[in-house]
Each structure stands twice: as C-alpha cells, then as structure tokens.
Amino acid sequence: MGAIIYLFYFIGSWLDENHPSDTVYYSKILAMLGVCIAIYNVIRQVNELNKTE
C-alpha cells in the first residue's frame, strides 16, 4: 500500500520538476490517486479472502 502511494507521489514530483505549472500540483493529485488505488486494492483482496471462507 505504501509502495503504491510513494510511487505515484514520486512520479508526480518528477512531473512537477520537469513540467512546472502555476495551477497544477501533480504530486498531490497523483498521491491522492495512489491512495485511492491502494484502498481499492485492499478492499478487493479482503473480498477475495471472504469468498474463500
């Protein structure tokens, strides 16, 4: 979960450095996207565990 969030934040900070903009914060947007993907992944895995019981 942490690796996904860090990866998205790292990509966002790289985009912030290489494509500067006054209104867009790539690192914040991509970090939040990483949080959503990580939570979705955890929920999906828990549902898979509950199906096998």
UniProtKB/TrEMBL annotation:
Keywords: Membrane, Transmembrane, Transmembrane helix. InterPro entries: ATPase_put. It comes from the Bacteria. It holds the Pfam family ATPase_gene1. The chain crosses the membrane at residues 24-43. This is F0F1-ATPase subunit. The lineage of its organism: Bacteria, Pseudomonadati, Bacteroidota, Flavobacteriia, Flavobacteriales.
